[in-house]
Amino acid sequence: MNVQAAQTWQGVxxxxxxxxxxxxxxxxDLIPNEAELAKEFGCAxxxxxxxxxxLADGGLLERRRKAGTRVAxxxxxxxxxxxxxxxxxxxxxxxxxxxxxxxxxxxxxxxxISAALGVxxxxxxxxxxxxxxxxxxxxxxxDRWINTLHVPGALGQDFRSVSANEWLLQNVPYTxxxxxxAAKPATAENAKHLNCPENxxxxxxxxxxxxxxxxxxxVQVLFAPGHQMRTRI
Amino acid sequence: MNVQAAQTWQGVxxxxxxxxxxxxxxxxDLIPNEAELAKEFGCAxxxxxxxxxxLADGGLLERRRKAGTRVAxxxxxxxxxxxxxxxxxxxxxxxxxxxxxxxxxxxxxxxxISAALGVxxxxxxxxxxxxxxxxxxxxxxxDRWINTLHVPGALGQDFRSVSANEWLLQNVPYTxxxxxxAAKPATAENAKHLNCPENxxxxxxxxxxxxxxxxxxxVQVLFAPGHQMRTRI
DNA sequence: CATGCTATTATGTATATACATAATACATGA
DNA sequence: TCATGTATTATGTATATACATAATAGCATG
Lengths: 233, 233
Hints:
The structure is a homodimer of 233-residue chains.
Chain A: H1 9-21, E1 30-31, H2 34-41, H3 45-57, E2 61-64, E3 68-71, E4 77-83, H4 86-92, E5 97-108, H5 111-117, E6 124-134, E7 137-146, H6 164-171, E8 176-185, H7 188-194, E9 201-211, E10 214-223, E11 228-232
Antiparallel strand pairs in A: 1-3, 2-3, 5-6, 6-7, 7-10, 8-9, 9-10
Helix pairs in contact in A: 1-3, 2-3
Chain A binds a DNA duplex (30 and 30 nucleotides) through residues 7-9, 33-35, 43-47, 49-50, 52-53, 63-69.
């Protein structure tokens, strides 16, 4: 018996992880049930449950009532990216943040935008473009449409000193959203703002947020060439 | 009193979420402590704890002992991307998966690779390039270096029918890793394989995995132009 | 033989209780 | 005043117990 004291759920989790990493329990394998593990580790079933549930949340285990718990196969890695306010992202890297409003207009949106936001094609929406700077160098270009039918308050903001990004987060709740990552070639306009050659490969993050069944905003953030989003798995 | 029965942790979570979305509790606000909420909801503190802990895991609440629980400010969205086996990714979209080995060689790696893998610059490593197809169209180009000092078994594989991607997941454990997303222009070679114009904007996913303190593999996956990675937040 | 009922089983959750731990506030002493 | 110790407090965790729920297997019935 190689177990003496794993009286904490972290301890149980560690030991289970070890067995998975050591291939004692291989991907696809059914592992002992909670009661057995509790007996083996000398702790309550609740504690084992906590440990296994946490691993299942992380994608390493798959659990089904009655069927039992098995090691996830194939091990799907879950990469969690923090989508923060751009100002914080810049400041966290120890750089000086800057902000420039590039455009603010109220007009009918392109069809793919009005469709995504679920509003009529001739509905006049608020369109804001802004440049985020890191140590005075272009960092990201934000291209945003705001559903003013749902967020009329946005019309009273000039977004000259506070970005739409931050204003919305502070003032408008959202309950769900979609996010998509893609690579896009820089248009002539993108290139001008980001101070890079036309057709440069840019990392694009598209977000669409909803407050219950009302769309709030559709935004595309284009990062300067070379930008990376990193995380651990 | 607008609360009668939230006897489940999901119920408590929903009500707390509702209050956050309704701005009854604003970002930065300290919310009542577990004991008070338990009394209000007519359930055990454990149940409230479960609900709040889950919300904190999701990044919506920030909790500190003694200090209490507050609504996260600014609301950092966590986007969780599933990094699956490419074959499954293709098949899940209902497409026919195809695989072509493009290159397999053993040689000294470029310095940035050997440095990332933490091996000597003149160490000969296994280099594999392969094309993943979706309905016979190029889907992704995999460019991989394997640390054969730690994974000698890879030298016995020809990777002609099973991708290195899948073989490694099935056979070599890893305990931690890094992942980075970026946009890159297609090189002439990339363009040839992916059947796209040179300098096309490609979404690049770079992964580096470790088994305890031994590097396993460094891989770059370049997706065909227009590819998106999506998730909900 | 197919269909539906039932028992069984493993996970999922709720509770009271107890104690652990971290962080703050307050008091105390040099 | 400053440092240090101490009490307080909110979250964190472990436990036994009980019951809920989903999925399966096996049985019974038409």
